[in-house]
Design a protein that fits this description.
7 helices, two-stranded antiparallel sheet, 6 strands, alpha/beta, about 200 residues, single chain, 4-stranded parallel sheet
């Protein structure tokens, strides 16, 4: 067992930082040390921002986004096309699509994907509210923007089955060659998806 070289308060900070995705124990130690070294510039403002986030950030009851408002800023934006919903696995995917600024519509966050092996079923995801939104009659298109994994494909098929019979266009993101990508550097799965998703010139 490794000996602790810092006080319990610092050790607790390191342990909490180590739980953040992308930070292991060593990265957490470096981050904690940097925060402590720059206490006034970093640690104080971070602690204040986290306190405010803890008090004010909530889950949007309509789409599953995180915001300080409920319904969230996106759902209440009158400039959005509410007839088109992009379905994503996680809030991080929503943020990525927003950064791309490719479409000015609304979203629905599932909170994951179906995974029977991991015990994740339809009741564990934000699926029922999506069906309810689609059944309301104002939706023209649902774009399923889940990851191109086995779980993502399973989830996409499940959603399609649940929306069967509704007069809604259901589409999926194209998967394949990225813009600027060279064929020689792509894996076989990406090339196969690109060939299957080919379009007429």
């Amino acid at each position: 067992m490794s000996k602790s070289v810092a006080g319990p308060e610092i050790e607790k900070l390191i342990q909490l930082l180590a739980r953040v995705p992308g930070l292991g124990p060593r990265s957490a130690r470096r981050a904690a040390l940097q925060l402590i070294k720059k206490k006034q510039q970093l640690l104080g403002p971070l602690a204040e921002a986290m306190s405010v986030a803890f008090d004010k950030v909530q889950i949007c009851s309509q789409c599953g986004n995180v915001d300080t408002l409920n319904p969230c800023t996106i759902c209440t934006d009158p400039r959005r096309d509410n007839a088109v919903i992009i379905v994503v696995e996680d809030v991080a995917d929503l943020w990525a699509l927003e950064r791309a600024a490719a479409m000015n519509c609304v979203y629905h966050v599932l909170g994951g994907t179906l995974s029977p092996l991991d015990g994740v079923g339809p009741d564990d995801l934000n699926l029922r509210p999506l069906v309810d939104r689609a059944s309301a009659g104002d939706i023209k298109e649902i774009i399923i923007a889940v990851n191109a994994t086995v779980e993502g494909q399973t989830t996409a098929h499940y959603i399609t089955d649940q929306l069967d019979g509704l007069d809604i266009s259901i589409t999926r993101l194209a998967h394949g060659v990225p813009v600027g990508g060279e064929l020689d550097y792509l894996d076989e799965g990406t090339l196969t998806a690109a060939l299957r998703s080919r379009t007429r010139l």
